[in-house]
Amino acid sequence: MRLVLDTAVMVAAIRSAEGASRWLLRSALERRRGLTFLVSVPLLIEYEAVMTGADHLKTAGISALDVGVLLDAVAAAAEPVRLAYLWRPALPDPDDDMVLEAAVNGRADAIVTFNTADFGPAAKDFGIAVLSSGETVRKLKGLQ
């Protein structure tokens, strides 16, 4: 399954060690069978900008340097997406457009997000599913 993780899912992955978002991130880093994590340069920059917020770092008990190391690992494990086409504006939140663009250009099967309502119509136009972290974990565990 080819996935793009929304920034909020990445934040949840560092804030909660036991959640579905952490399971997805760990699976992507371990390159578990059947899972391809897709990222673009703008999306990695967005991840870093949000994940290094003081409140997220404090809750996660990590430093900005730790986030940098994590994102280096994400970049190494993920399939890079070259943004050949941009679709803007397509979503109510302009920051979400980069997630959709990575998914479309990377031929993702799904976008993993907590914001399924906003992503749903636009992603459907491109044949991309919009799933929560929990739904995605259940699908992946069913595939293994």
Explain the overall architecture.
This protein is of the alpha/beta class and 144 residues long. Helix content is 58%, strand content 11%. The chain contains eight helices and five strands, in the order E-H-H-E-H-H-H-E-H-E-H-E-H. It has helices spanning 7-15, 20-29, 41-51, 54-60, 64-77, 94-105, 116-125, 133-143, and strands spanning 2-5, 36-39, 79-80, 110-112, 129-131. The chain has a five-stranded parallel beta sheet with strand order 3-2-1-4-5, sandwiched between helices. Helix 1 (7-15) packs across helix 2, helix 1 (7-15) packs across helix 3 and helix 3 packs antiparallel against helix 5 (64-77). The mean pLDDT is 91.
Sum up the structure in keywords:
alpha/beta, five-stranded parallel β-sheet, 5 strands
Fold topology:
Blueprint: E1 2-5, H1 7-15, H2 20-29, E2 36-39, H3 41-51, H4 54-60, H5 64-77, E3 79-80, H6 94-105, E4 110-112, H7 116-125, E5 129-131, H8 133-143
Parallel strand pairs: 1-2, 1-4, 2-3, 4-5
Helix pairs in contact: 1-2, 1-3, 2-8, 3-5
- Which sequence of strands runs across the widest sheet? 3-2-1-4-5
What portion of residues belong to β-strands? 5-15%
The share of residues in helices is: 55-70%
Principal-axes shape call: globular
| Helix/strand structural class | alpha/beta
List the helices and strands in order.
EHHEHHHEHEHEH
> Total number of helical segments?
8
Distance between the termini: 11 Å
Low-confidence stretches: none
Number of strands: 5
**Rg over CA atoms:** 14 Å
Biggest sheet architecture: 5 strands, parallel
Mean pLDDT comes to 91
* Assembly category: single chain
